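Batch manifest, entry 17 of 40.
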Amino acid sequence: MLYILFTGSREPSNPEEVEHLVRTHLGPHVAKLGPENVVPVHGSAVGVDSIVQGIVDGWYGMHSDTFPANFFRDPLVRNAFMVKYVSDRKSRGHQVACWAFAEKWASGTGACARYARAANIPTVDWGVNTERSAR
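Output type: structure tokens
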């Protein structure tokens, strides 16, 4: 199984580019592993999360693990929870990744990507560089 944590803006400046990147880079994983073995993980918010979910809904058999905001008082707590959720899957022998679509370093998306890196989850920045040294 491959669990991919998606984190991104609720108002991406270029949603078409986000959709293109997700389709282009998620597709090969789905083709190789099968849709039942790729699990997108996201916060079920508008923006990047809804773009990802729209793509996932278009692929028969795919399931997402989602964590809607209404279950968390603080978005950073939710981000940390999702990172721990994915990290727990890694400790069980599953493949994991984090795909960050940050538009600025100082954002919830940037923080989520840094949490993922701190948990040794391979992280790809599709937007600005979210690493600590990038600031």
